[in-house]
Design brief:
Layout: H1 5-8, H2 11-23, H3 32-45, E1 49-54, E2 58-64, E3 71-77, H4 104-121, E4 127-133, H5 141-147, H6 150-154, E5 156-165, E6 173-174, E7 178-181, E8 183-192, E9 196-197, H7 207-225, E10 232-241, E11 247-248, E12 251-260, H8 263-283, E13 287-296, E14 299-301, H9 303-317, E15 322-323, H10 335-339, E16 343-350, H11 369-383
Parallel strand pairs: 3-4, 3-5, 5-16, 6-15
Antiparallel strand pairs: 1-2, 2-4, 6-16, 7-14, 8-12, 8-13, 9-11, 10-12
Helix pairs in contact: 2-4, 3-4, 4-11, 7-8, 9-11
């Protein structure tokens, strides 16, 4: 494994950074302590510009290379999850009910490692924008940073990010061109019937029966309306109605999620869901309303940039440890907002045989940090070489 020598020398320091961040997790957009830690490190490294509170608590650091050129973006997320930690580690979370269970402590550390190296060597042209983002797990901090002028203010022409991947050998790099992660929308269906005594059901309009008919009919969109070559998931994950065994309630609520890679499929889903919800309820004597919430867009990797990432990663870890055709998954990631603004690619770095993401016993493997930092740094040096060489 040909980790950049200077970054390999940072290993002990990076481990300290990562474990400090792990012990002090913060939620959603309120990553102020983590942002302050990042800013302190960037100042130590001699980063040329530091911009705070981009997208509430986001940080953007700018490193100038040697010579004119474009600006390349490298992104890491900083936020944790609202869940208890059960790792038993000496550096476990000190915040009750909050845990770094998705590797964002490692993501931030890898970008800091790359920042230290790039600020000291400057073996590239143009500029690097170091993007430390809050809110990936909840509010969509990527969208907040975009809306706060991330691309306009800093002129970012391409952007790259990476994520920890358990059950892949430590330091392996995995990705694919095109769709990598799905869009993630959620919905609620509110049903109004006419309640009454369960022994006199004929005198009621039963919202529970309307709900189960709607839930069943919605699945026909996937099987009968969507092109089977295209991918979509519609999952009903909540049904709420009633309070006791002998009363037919007035209302019912269904909730769930829709996942797809295709904007056209998403539009079709909303159209057909609306029709089924309203018409099924009307047919059964009640009323119903679909509240559809558009969430993270699909993460679509650009082919040229993704092939480039794989070639760069092969320099660091060897071609046999780069998976170039990783199967897409129906999970979601708000890096997608950044990819809607510029060309780029998102990739995974192996975390070894560990508990999976969002598990109470997950921990980022520190051995991956210098690998990820080296890939980030080499992306910059290869994308924006000095003198165009």
């Amino acid at each position: 494994m040909a980790v950049i020598n200077r970054i390999a020398e940072y290993f002990d320091e990076m481990k300290v950074w990562r474990r400090h961040i792990h012990a002090h997790p913060e939620l959603d957009m309120e990553c102020h302590r983590t942002a302050a830690f990042v800013v302190e490190r960037l100042r130590e490294f001699g980063v040329d510009e530091i911009h705070e509170k981009i997208g509430v608590s986001g940080v953007v650091g700018i490193i100038n290379g040697c010579g004119e050129g474009p600006t390349i973006g490298l992104r890491a997320d900083m936020d944790a999850l609202p869940m208890p930690e059960e790792t038993g580690l000496e550096y476990a979370s000190t915040v009750e009910g909050v845990m770094h269970a998705c590797g964002h402590d490692g993501h931030t550390t890898m970008l800091l490692g790359a920042a230290k190296y790039l600020a000291s060597t400057r073996n590239f042209s143009g500029r690097v924008a170091l993007i430390f983002q809050p809110g990936e797990e909840g509010s969509g901090g990527g969208r907040y940073m975009v809306e706060d002028g991330l691309f306009e203010k800093f002129g970012i022409s391409q952007v790259f990010g990476q994520h920890s991947l358990p059950n892949s050998p430590v330091g392996n790099i995995e990705t694919c061109p095109g769709p990598l992660l799905a869009s993630a929308d959620d919905f609620e269906i509110h049903i109004i019937g006419s309640g009454g005594h369960a022994a006199s059901a004929h005198e009621t309009v039963d919202p529970v029966m309307i709900a189960v008919n709607i839930a069943s009919a919605l699945q026909t969109i996937v099987t009968r309306n969507v092109d089977p070559i295209k991918t979509v998931v519609l999952s009903i994950t909540q049904i709420h109605s009633g309070t006791t065994h002998n009363v037919i309630p007035e209302t019912a609520m269904l909730g769930g999620t829709v996942r797809t890679f295709d904007k056209g499929v998403k539009a079709l889903m909303v159209e057909r869901m609306t029709a089924i919800v309203e018409q099924t309820a009307e047919m059964m004597g009640g009323k119903a309303r679909l509240d559809y919430n558009y969430g993270y867009p699909a993460t679509i990797n650009d082919t040229v940039e993704t092939n480039f990432v794989c070639d760069v990663a092969a320099e660091i870890v060897g071609d046999d440890r780069v998976v170039r055709d990783m199967p897409p998954t129906m999970g979601a990631e708000d890096f997608s907002y950044l990819l809607e603004q510029s060309r780029g690619s998102y990739f995974y770095i192996g975390n070894g045989d560990t508990a999976y993401l969002h598990h109470t016993k997950y921990d980022f493997d520190d051995e991956a940090s210098p690998v990820g930092a080296s890939v980030f740094a080499r992306i910059v040096e290869r994308a924006q070489p000095l003198n165009g060489n």
